[in-house]
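Retry 2 of 3 after timeout on previous attempt. Resubmitting structure tokens to design endpoint.
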């Protein structure tokens, strides 16, 4: 299903005229070697442009890279482009072994370039490149002012351009004709005489054709050199019915190219169709051009610092489309796909896979933000991004500490409109207890988990709302409010106090109330006596009386759900204390 949807997306790109041709791929090339028509070196061109604090190389549509694996990887080179070891024989270090490897790589590149030149005999640009490469005289390149920058980049890719001409040499029509005729073999094992091409039934297209023995790589974040969705380790017992490697999952070459190309387009650096959810790289697309594709990344991604309102604007598009006189996205029946991928050694792990309509997905996204709505400070964002919610569950608030499976399960629940995972509730409560702090994102998550579970499982018990609910008699919620009030009394009795009862008693009060609250209630009387403003003391005492009206006794322990209600009640009550009362 995943490969079929990706292949269909490639066909959509082809129909729109934006698809990459077979045999080509967008690859970053930091430097171009400029030659004249006689094959003489003219100069180096730096393609990098500033992107934040880094310089990012320009991506070019060039012949796709060759698979290189094992001890004889140097025998395979790319098509009129490669890193400086192949193109110029430049070693990555001065080590004798690296120098010898660079020499072998360059010999392979020279032999490949000669072979290409014999086919493209009428193309003077290809002949110029061949003449330059065969000459072996690269001193002018190494003495160029930009070479120092190039040599500092590990495995810096290089390719050729003729001066005063548009486009690269490897993009010329003669090269495209060479590739289209199948003269160029990109599969490292297809050239072996001991392995013959297998023609069979493709599980993706349902057609009969040449089956791909190795599938192209995909640059998922976290994998060093790219990984694969479909791959089989050699001699590891995964073969069956006499088939080897990817013949066990027969996919024709056209489909293998189509689905990987579509995926690579969405994973490119400038793509607007990807976000990061925990350790997963998430891509999304629709069966045809759709507005949700344009705003999905803004809705779930972390807003840019220079444009913090970007996410809010995107979410308002979902809410306000009917007001603008356009059909709402919630009534769009176009198919919509979301795929979460994570690195797993040389392969790609599928974290989650969602298929639905644009309308269903938009409705579920809106419901997620409705569930997460909770009272907050005036300077805090109206809508919390997925990243902000997830890091609130992580140790030290670091994204690398987000539990891997939690992020994927959370995203699945949002898109499908199902209850949030139970592990999410436990993770938030764990952070609240460990850090003794109930933040806005944590309160929003707890409120959302509890509200959605009550709605889905049709619980009869009253659930927490967006703001303080004095009518909520749940013991966990009431105790949370009580704890917040006791802390407020202590703070006002001891202005500037460094540590409050929250720092010492939050874990016990939220988990085993009977062990903490009797002592805290006695401590409260001492703090009230210290208040200089007797009217304020009376008002705080009234709040405690109102809260205690529904509490018969302090329970020995609270369930996980009630610990969540405790945290939300505490948060709600604190927000009331720090919100100014205004009379209109």
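Retry 2 succeeded. Sequence:
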């Amino acid at each position: 299903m995943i490969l079929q949807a990706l292949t269909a997306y490639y066909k959509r790109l082809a129909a729109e005229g934006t698809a990459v041709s077979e045999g080509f791929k967008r690859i970053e090339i930091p430097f171009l070697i400029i030659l004249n028509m006689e094959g003489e070196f003219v100069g180096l061109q730096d393609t990098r442009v500033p992107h934040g604090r880094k310089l990012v190389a320009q991506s070019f549509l060039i012949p796709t890279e060759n698979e290189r694996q094992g001890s004889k990887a140097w025998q395979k080179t790319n098509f009129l482009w490669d890193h400086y070891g192949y193109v110029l024989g430049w070693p990555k270090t001065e080590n004798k072994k690296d120098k010898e490897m660079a020499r072998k790589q360059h010999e392979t590149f020279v032999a490949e370039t000669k072979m290409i030149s014999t086919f493209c005999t009428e193309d003077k640009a290809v002949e110029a490149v061949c003449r330059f490469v065969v000459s072996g005289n690269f001193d002018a390149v190494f003495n160029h002012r930009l070479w120092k920058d190039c040599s500092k980049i590990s495995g810096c890719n290089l390719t050729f351009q003729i001066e005063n001409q548009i486009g690269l040499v490897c993009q010329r029509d003669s090269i495209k004709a060479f590739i289209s005729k199948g003269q160029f073999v990109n599969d490292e094992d297809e050239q072996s005489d001991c392995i013959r091409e297998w023609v069979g039934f493709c599980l993706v297209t349902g057609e009969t054709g040449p089956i791909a023995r190795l599938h192209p790589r995909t640059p998922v974040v976290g994998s060093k050199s790219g990984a694969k969705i479909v791959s089989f380790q050699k001699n590891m017992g995964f073969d069956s019915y006499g088939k080897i490697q990817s013949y066990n999952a027969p996919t024709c070459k056209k489909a293998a190219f189509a689905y990987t190309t579509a995926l690579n387009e969405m994973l490119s650096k400038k793509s607007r169709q990807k976000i990061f959810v925990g350790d997963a790289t998430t891509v999304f697309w629709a069966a045809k051009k759709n507005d949700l594709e344009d705003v999905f990344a803004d809705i779930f991604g972390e807003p840019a610092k220079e444009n913090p309102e970007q996410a809010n604007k995107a979410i308002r598009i979902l809410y306000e489309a009917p007001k603008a006189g356009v059909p709402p996205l919630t009534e769009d029946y176009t198919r919509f796909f979301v795929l979460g991928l994570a690195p797993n050694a040389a392969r790609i792990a599928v974290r989650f896979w969602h298929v639905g309509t644009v309308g269903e997905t938009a409705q579920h996204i809106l419901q997620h933000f409705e569930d997460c709505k909770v009272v907050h400070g005036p300077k805090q964002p109206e809508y919390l991004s997925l990243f902000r919610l997830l890091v609130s569950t992580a140790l030290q608030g670091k994204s690398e500490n987000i539990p891997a499976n939690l992020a994927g399960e959370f995203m699945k629940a949002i898109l499908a409109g199902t209850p949030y995972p139970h592990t999410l509730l436990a993770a938030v409560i764990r952070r609240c207890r460990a850090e003794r702090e109930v933040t806005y994102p944590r309160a929003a998550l707890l409120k959302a988990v509890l509200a959605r579970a009550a709605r889905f499982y049709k619980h009869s018990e009253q659930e927490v709302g967006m703001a303080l609910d004095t009518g909520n008699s749940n013991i966990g919620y009431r105790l949370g409010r009580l704890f917040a009030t006791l802390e407020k009394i202590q703070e006002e009795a001891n202005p500037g106090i460094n540590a409050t009862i929250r720092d010492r008693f939050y874990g016990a009060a939220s988990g085993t109330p009977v062990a903490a609250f009797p002592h805290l209630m006695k401590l409260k009387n001492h703090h009230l006596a210290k208040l200089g403003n007797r009217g304020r003391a009376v008002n705080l005492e009234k709040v405690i009386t109102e809260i205690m009206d529904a509490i018969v006794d302090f329970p020995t322990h609270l369930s996980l759900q009630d610990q969540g209600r405790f945290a939300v009640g505490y948060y709600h009550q604190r927000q009331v204390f720090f919100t100014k009362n205004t009379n209109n």
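Attempt log closed. The first helix runs from residue 2 to 16.
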